[in-house]
Task: structure prediction
Amino acid sequence: MNTDFYDAFLRHLEDAEYLFRENRIANADQLYGYSAECGLKALMKAFGMSVDSRSVPSPKDKKHLPEIWARYAIYQSGAKALAYTLPTSNPFADWDINNRYAHRSDFNKADVQVHQQATNKIKTLINQAFLEGRITV
Result:
């Protein structure tokens, strides 16, 4: 299957929001992280991240949160990406892909809301990039 960061961003976010509304915060948190990662990679690709023929990034960009947040700053520094800024403080610093193995009681709603808000900030940037034609379907 070919990689589609934009579509993956959307579907993970849609599912995260559904689960959050249903108070399934453990799985919502994981999907906010996956969505944020895919959204950042969609933006990075729009700003010059090199990918192979299947849109798989090079090893230096084949990272998960929270590392990809710092990697995004490299692409954000380009002239065409200056309007696409994120907070320098990483709201996903406490998020880990391995949390998918954690017990649901280990998650709290306040922490998940921080991840939700950060993902929605990425959504704003994705929408801007889409409207400007930097991301296409």
